[in-house]
């Protein structure tokens, strides 16, 4: 068919876009500042609503398309990562990945301006970068986001990564407009909910991607992800997913935390929190090689995009079950949320990562209540991809029962010692 073959120029362009998806830029945004307050025995998460918005600067960022929203906006995903040593993983370096989603409706053409860094979390920036004004190439997204690079005299602005991202996002906004008008040639809304990410390590097995508000001072990190899978006769897949957390520190009820920890030690033999949910996939969705489709959530060749949609056709029926741990619309400020009492309803899977093997969940509250939507949109998230080599979490296949068997409750220990003493007494 005329026009469906990929020319050498198009293929070269796809390869170039894939390479550029790894190029790093700065990201700045105006946002409220939050604080974690220690008031006596209480620990409170609090937004500083009475203060003006603050400018935040983040370096080493990548920028990717995510999806077109129903109101005509587009969602852009900002990612960054850093290395840390992890005692839990065996005193080895791990890679912490961060993600922030922003919804925009406009973007300005890049320009050159002088800029002085406002607030950056990077500790080792040279003083020359922090204290002096330098020229930068920058484009503005809506009225509160900026993507930029320090300017280089030997390079034209139109050859910069910032200009490439500007053109790509402008095209994405144009596609959103066409979709809203009903004239887009591209795929279904469900197909657009697959977040395509440039990732070298893939896994063709059902493992969820987990997002959690990245607030270090709360110490509620995910430590282990266990996926116990059962394949049905109809090729459907059921996976029991158990998440093991570093701790569960209460927020609004911090004065109860010590008592709660002791109760958990008695009842469960652990202070670490474990939460379990289920994934049901109707059938395996086979995928052919989509190496040209990992950049920015789009394939620029409509013919190939159409073929990939056929291979990844959504059959419906995929869902989560969050029994006693559904977050609803509650956010990180809440610590007593246990929605979806049994019999728990089926919650549709809204987003996938790379392909249908990896549904996305969001840990939304302080007590680790989970949902299919992000209720903390303004906060950077930890992005847990459990199978990558330097992941900060351990990936296993234990069932919830097997996870619980790792811990002996204090009551169980006491009963075991009583039994041993009685046996020794009988022998005497």
Estimate percent helicity.
Answer: 10-25%
Q: Please provide the count of β strands.
A: 21
Biggest β-sheet description? 13 strands, mixed
Radius of gyration: 24 Å
Oligomer description = single chain
Q: What characteristic shape results from the CA principal axes?
A: globular
- What count of structural domains? 2
> Termini distance?
92 Å
Total of DSSP H or I helical runs spanning 4+ residues: 7
As residue ranges, the low-confidence spans are 1-6, 248-257, 286-315
Strand and helix order: HEEEEEEEHEEHEEEEHEHEEEEEEEHH
Strand content: 25-35%
Structural write-up:
The chain has 2 domains: 1-198, no CATH class; 200-282 and 317-428, no CATH class. The radius of gyration is 24 Å and the shape is globular. The protein is 20% helix and 32% strand. It is built from 7 helices and 21 strands. The strands form 3 sheets. Strands 1, 4, 5, 6, 7, 8, 9, 10, 11, 17, 18, 19 and 20 form a 13-stranded mixed β-sheet that branches. A 6-stranded mixed β-sheet has the order 16-15-14-13-12-21, with no helix packed on it. The chain is of the alpha+beta class.
């Amino acid at each position: 068919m005329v026009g469906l073959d990929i020319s050498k120029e198009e293929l070269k362009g796809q390869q170039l876009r894939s390479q550029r998806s790894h190029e790093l830029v700065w990201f700045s945004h105006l946002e409220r500042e939050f604080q974690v307050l220690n008031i006596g025995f209480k620990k409170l998460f609090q937004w500083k609503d009475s203060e003006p918005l603050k400018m935040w600067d983040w370096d080493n960022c990548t920028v990717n398309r995510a999806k077109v929203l129903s109101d005509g906006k587009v969602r852009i995903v900002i990612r960054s990562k850093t290395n840390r040593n992890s005692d839990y993983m065996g005193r080895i370096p791990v890679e912490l990945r961060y993600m922030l989603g922003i919804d925009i409706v406009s973007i300005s053409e890049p320009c050159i301006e002088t800029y002085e860094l406002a607030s950056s979390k990077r500790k080792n920036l040279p003083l020359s970068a922090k204290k002096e004004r330098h020229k930068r190439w920058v484009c503005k997204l809506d009225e509160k986001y900026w993507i930029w690079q320090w300017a280089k005299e030997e390079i034209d602005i139109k050859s910069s990564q910032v200009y490439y991202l500007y053109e790509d996002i402008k095209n994405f906004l144009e596609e959103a407009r066409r979709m809203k008008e009903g004239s887009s040639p591209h795929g279904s809304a469900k197909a657009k909910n697959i977040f395509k990410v440039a990732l070298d390590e893939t896994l063709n097995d059902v493992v969820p991607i987990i997002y959690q508000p990245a607030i270090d001072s709360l110490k509620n990190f995910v430590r282990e992800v266990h996926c116990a899978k059962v394949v049905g006769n109809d090729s459907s897949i059921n996976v029991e997913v158990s998440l093991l957390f570093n701790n569960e520190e209460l927020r609004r009820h911090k004065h109860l935390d010590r008592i709660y920890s002791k109760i958990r030690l008695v009842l469960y033999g652990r202070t670490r929190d474990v939460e379990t949910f289920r994934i049901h996939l109707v059938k395996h969705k086979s995928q052919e090689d989509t190496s040209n489709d990992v950049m920015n959530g789009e394939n620029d060749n409509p013919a190939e995009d159409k073929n990939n949609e056929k291979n990844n056709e959504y059959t419906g029926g995929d869902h989560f079950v969050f029994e006693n741990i559904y977050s609803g619309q509650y956010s990180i400020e809440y610590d007593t949320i246990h929605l979806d009492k049994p019999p728990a309803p089926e919650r549709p899977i809204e987003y996938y990562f790379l392909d249908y093997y990896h549904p996305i969940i969001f840990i939304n509250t302080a007590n680790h209540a989970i949902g299919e939507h992000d209720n903390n949109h303004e906060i950077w998230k930890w992005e847990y991809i459990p199978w990558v080599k330097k992941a900060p979490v351990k990936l296993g296949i234990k069932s919830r029962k097997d996870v619980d068997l790792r811990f002996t409750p204090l009551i169980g220990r006491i009963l075991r010692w009583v039994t041993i003493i009685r046996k020794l007494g009988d022998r005497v």
